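FAQ

Q: What does a record look like?
A: Structure on top, sequence underneath. For example:
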């Protein structure tokens, strides 16, 4: 069917079912926990469809452009979640969802990919080209340092930056977008010079575009249902909005799409695996976050780079750890495990601190 495997057809059917069920649960006013669970499954499934269809479109463009396209459109579900959260006045959810996506991809997904890649290698060391990991580490460090600087300025006794957070965040967002664009354009141009892998595309261009449009538009509706059921569900489970955004929203809306990185690492394609995951991390920090800050100027409660000390510390540790582990072009299994352990620790602290 349309070049899809039987498993993929079954997965598409399941995603369609959960999406429809989430709509019924929302509009019929069913139990918040049920509505939230169905919306979470639907959101994760739609993220997979967006990732799959983007990959099929990108196979005609070459690996570099494919990676950028996959990261950009793969962030659609999370983009809509944050937008609806901001429109509902849930700034904590919006902010922690972005930070959670960075942490989930940079620690959990990258860590698992490194463990998988090291496991299948002969000497138990996963090796990859350091060029892209170093570039994306620089972008991540830039974004994190901006957030840390804002946090330091706020904590200053004589600082008045809290009265100008929107202005500072706007300037920082524009700066990040300029730097990201300066890196992105040459990167894509270099990639366009390589051969596109047309033979790997398993569905036609028209089918891939239809899947992409349907999944993207459906993500907007499901994100609205997800946010609507979020608060009552968290109250029932005695969980904080910070934990929901940092863990649940991040994994459902973003990390699922990057499972491909783990699979590729297990298949002995470490360069592609690391590129997919780290490209996504850099784009969230230097593109998605700044864009959402600028878009949030249209809402009553704008999004800024001001964050609690816990999130700032987690981001700084993550940026340094990722740079240290991937900067030399090789990683051992214990290094991947260290990234996963750091993510578990941050999630656990957020669970009890909220």
């Amino acid at each position: 069917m349309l070049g899809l495997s039987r498993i993929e057809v079954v997965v598409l059917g399941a995603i369609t079912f959960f999406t429809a069920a989430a709509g019924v649960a929302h509009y019929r006013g069913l139990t918040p926990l049920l509505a939230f669970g169905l919306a979470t499954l639907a959101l994760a499934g739609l993220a997979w469809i967006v990732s799959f269809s983007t990959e099929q479109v990108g196979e005609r463009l070459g690996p570099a452009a494919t990676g950028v396209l996959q990261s950009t459109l793969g962030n659609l579900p999370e983009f809509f979640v944050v937008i609806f959260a901001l429109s509902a006045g849930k700034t904590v959810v919006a902010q922690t969802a972005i930070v959670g996506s960075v942490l989930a991809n940079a620690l959990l997904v990258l860590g698992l990919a490194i463990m998988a890649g090291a496991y299948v290698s002969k000497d138990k060391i996963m090796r990859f080209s350091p060029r892209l990991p170093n570039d994306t580490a620089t972008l991540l460090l830039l974004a994190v340092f901006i957030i840390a600087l804002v946090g330091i300025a706020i904590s200053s006794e004589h600082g008045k930056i809290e009265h100008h957070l929107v202005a500072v965040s706007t300037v920082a967002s524009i700066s990040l977008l300029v730097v990201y664009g300066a890196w992105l354009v040459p990167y894509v141009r270099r990639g366009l010079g390589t051969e596109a892998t047309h033979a790997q595309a398993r569905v036609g261009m028209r089918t891939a575009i239809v899947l992409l449009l349907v999944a993207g538009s459906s993500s907007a509706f499901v994100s609205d249902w997800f946010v609507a059921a979020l608060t009552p569900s968290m109250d029932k489970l005695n969980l904080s909005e910070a934990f929901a955004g940092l863990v649940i929203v991040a994994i459902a809306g973003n990390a699922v799409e990057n499972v491909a990185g783990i699979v590729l690492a297990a298949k002995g394609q470490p360069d592609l695996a690391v590129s997919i995951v780290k490209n996504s991390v850099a784009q969230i920090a230097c593109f998605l976050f700044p864009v959402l800050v600028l878009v949030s100027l249209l809402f009553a409660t704008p999004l800024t780079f001001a964050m609690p000390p816990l999130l700032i510390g987690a981001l700084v540790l993550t940026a340094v750890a990722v740079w240290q582990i991937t900067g030399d072009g090789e990683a051992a299994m214990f290094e991947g495990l260290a990234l996963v352990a750091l993510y578990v620790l941050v999630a656990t602290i957020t669970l009890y601190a909220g």
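Q: Is there anything notable about this one?
A: Residues 205-237 form the longest helix (33 residues).
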